[in-house]
Input
Amino acid sequence: MALHRSYLVVFALISTMIPVMTLAKELVVGDGKGWTINFDYQAWAQGKDFRVGDKLVFNYPVGAHTVLKVNGTGFQNCIKPPASEALTSGSDEIVLATPGRKWYICGVGTHCETAGQKLFITVQPQPSSVSPAMAPSPVQSNMAPSPVQSNMAVKDTVNYQLFFGVMVAVVTLALAF
Output
């Protein structure tokens, strides 16, 4: 019986962690366009909720572009760091490990300066707890949801995942004792 309770306690603990692990998301920069020239990356980033643990994926043809992490001045003036710092795989993944402002540019030719191939985002910390106040506001039926409302729907989904995980843990612990 004690072994049975131990298994239930372990299951309860794991079920509370699974929803938290699903909070991180993968964002393909530029969506279907990928990392390319003459694309408005600031418009793409507008309304998106970047969080610690999320992963940015830069997709582009190998040799056509690079990804360089820069500071604010490097972003404004398209100042390229040494080529040895460039990501060049064509499917570069960057895990957003810390909150704050992040800047990325292309280091090929004048892609940053003349073609606007640069991205600025602000990364938020992961919430320590999810509040019920994150529920989405009603959307009028004749209008498409705005990016902010779409993000709220994602947060709402996360609320349900957390709620489900906590409920499974509570029921499991109740059964164990």
Remarks:
- The domain at 24-127 is CATH 2.60.40.420 (Immunoglobulin-like).
